[in-house]
Specification:
The protein is of the alpha+beta class and 185 residues long. Helix content is 31%, strand content 26%.
Length: 185
Amino acid sequence: MDRQTVYTVRHARPEDVPGARRLILDTLYREFGYGYVPEWHADVVDLQGHYLDHPRHTLLVAVRQGEVVATTALHSTGPAHPPHPREVAERYPDGTTAQLVRVYVRAEHRRHGLARELVRRACAFASAEGGYRCVYLHTNADIPGAEPFWRSLAEEVHDARPTGEHGPGVATVHFEIPLHRPALV
């Protein structure tokens, strides 16, 4: 992480929730272009209950001068079928899958290592929590920089981008990050 710009990276506190929600909704509307979809984004309405109050979930934030400028969340629910392929949903069941979501950084704060640091801390949380087999995530490869970023951290497990024969759709690529557990002494 760039040390010249001072950021505080931490597990979210209740006072971070409004800023985190604002950042997430801004990303959904401005960058993704489809906005809030209740079936996909139910956690955004109740970040406190979904992440802060649940012992196996976490919301991490990067804060600069009192503003939440980046988020990452992790929960214990695997991908749903539909909309995701059945084989992906079966490979990543609820309870043993730590799903990484809401990895968003405000545009003016990118290129400081915030997303990488937040993901590292989320994976450390999942590893320490126990009971998780791996970290799963999916990304929209049409978002500039998303696919190369995830390829630098994770292994592709399924490319679900539509081909000409399937028609238009979201350019989703599914990834896995193995969990590294500390050695037992």
